[in-house]
Amino acid sequence: MKLSKRGEYALRALIDLGIAQEVGRPLLRLPEIAAKEQLPQKFLEQIVQLLRDAGFVVSERGRFGGYRLARPAGKIFVGEVVRLVDGPLAPIGCVSQTAYEKCSCPDETHCGLRMLMLDVRNAIASILDRYTLADVVEVTLRKMRRNGVPLPFATPPHHLRLNGSHVGNNGATLHRLQPTEGLINNLLGDYAI
């Protein structure tokens, strides 16, 4: 499974809406999200329309209108969003739980490749279906606060500079991610898959 650009942008937009909600901004306009995430606005509009049609976001019209989450972030599972935008999680059709397709293998029951890909599908699903948008927002905000990065969409910006590290154009400290910087490790501490 490879997350498409549509899937990535959908999740980034939902995370931004969750962050905005946490910092007291009930609504965000698409140009704000597009600017923060450096995304093409027209493409983002198509993605947000899909999210709206599926009941993940709602829009409010008017001068002070915008988008917000349609339900609590704790009720939006990452796996739901990925399946909506990118389809089944399974790397091959014969192990899909939502879009099964008979494989070309002559003995599907004893196919080693199918058994391996079922384990891959189950590992991906167990992570994406375990974590909610609220989990991702919580870890994102915690890390931003720890690193002294200004919280996006906050007015006035909540900013604490903890050290003199180099900060990129979007306010994020520039460095490579370490294995211990994943969502699971940030939520559960020393945890091995």
Question: How would you describe this protein?
Answer:
The chain is mainly alpha-helical and 193 residues long. The protein has three domains: 5-74, Arc Repressor Mutant, subunit A, CATH 1.10.10; 88-128, no CATH class; 133-188, no CATH class. Helices cover 44% and strands 4% of the residues. The chain is built from seven helices and two strands; from the N terminus they run αααββαααα. It has helices spanning 5-22, 30-37, 41-53, 78-86, 112-128, 133-146, 183-188, and strands spanning 57-60, 66-69. A two-stranded antiparallel ribbon has the order 1-2. A hairpin with a 5-residue loop joins β1 and β2 (66-69). α1 (5-22) packs across α3, α1 packs antiparallel against α4 (78-86) and α1 crosses α6 (133-146). The longest helix has 18 residues, at 5-22. It is globular. Residues 157-174 have low confidence and may be disordered.
How are the SSEs placed, and which strands pair?
Blueprint: H1 5-22, H2 30-37, H3 41-53, E1 57-60, E2 66-69, H4 78-86, H5 112-128, H6 133-146, H7 183-188
Antiparallel strand pairs: 1-2
Helix pairs in contact: 1-3, 1-4, 1-6
Widest beta sheet: strand line-up: 1-2
Estimate the global geometry from the Cα principal axes.
Answer: globular
Total number of beta strands? 2
Q: Measure the end-to-end span.
A: 18 Å
* Mean pLDDT over all positions: 85
Order of helices and strands: HHHEEHHHH
How many helical stretches? Answer: 7
**Helix fraction?**
40-55%
Overall tally of domains: 3
CATH fold naming of the largest domain: Arc Repressor Mutant, subunit A
Q: What's the CATH architecture of the largest domain? A: Orthogonal Bundle
Largest pleated sheet: 2 strands, antiparallel
Supply the CATH superfamily name of the largest domain.
Answer: Winged helix-like DNA-binding domain superfamily/Winged helix DNA-binding domain
Strand content: under 5%
